[in-house]
Specification:
alpha/beta; seven-stranded mixed β-sheet; two-stranded antiparallel ribbon; about 30% helix; globular
Length: about 180
């Protein structure tokens, strides 16, 4: 059994003024940080989904040993990134741990806690922060086709998770889970 980290970083970041995959702060590149968090948290490999200005973003990934998938329809929202990422999963992956690139306070401890909740093809779990649902989201292979079929716009797997029993993994003691949309 293998759990692949899936870092969604395809959007244009219109409120940020640039794609979030290209954002760096005092702690470095958000893209590199996301890959590191997934690696250090226990994922067996990482797939990064790029879209807007992907040629520039690929430079941040040089030497990190990740798989890159391009969401050519990235403008239609996060769901396009999620679908592209699930299609691009390695054949031996039994689960995908989905993380957004714009969660800079998220740590490997959050990823580890969600992964510790269980893995395998039937798993369905998500991090919560003081009871508020967030990322990462752990989706077993058994759910991938249905998640992809129901994902629309910027809602990703939200509707699927609301309609299906899943494990909520409280992580509010480890991070805020708040995404950053502007500088």
């Amino acid at each position: 059994m293998s759990t692949q980290g899936l870092l969604l970083a395809a959007g244009a970041g219109s409120r940020m003024g640039q794609p979030k995959a290209l954002v760096s702060d005092a702690d470095g590149s958000w893209l590199e940080r996301g890959v590191r968090v997934l690696d250090d948290g226990g994922c067996d490999g990482v797939t990064v989904v790029l879209g807007a200005r992907s040629a520039e973003a690929v430079a941040f990934l040089d030497g990190l040993g990740v798989d890159v998938v391009i969401a050519h329809d990235w403008e239609s929202g996060m769901s396009a990134s999620l679908r592209a990422g699930l299609r691009g999963m390695p054949p031996d992956a039994t689960a995908a741990l989905v993380l957004l690139v714009d969660l800079p306070d998220l740590t490997a401890s959050v990823v580890r806690r969600v992964l510790d909740s269980g893995t395998g093809p039937g798993v369905l779990a998500r991090a919560t922060y003081d009871g508020r649902p967030g990322h990462p989201v752990l989706i077993g292979r058994d759910h991938w086709a249905a998640v992809a079929a129901t994902a629309t716009g910027d809602r990703g797997a939200r509707d699927y998770l609301e309609a299906h029993e899943h494990l909520s993994v409280e992580c509010g003691d480890l991070a805020s889970g708040i995404d950053v949309d502007s500088r």
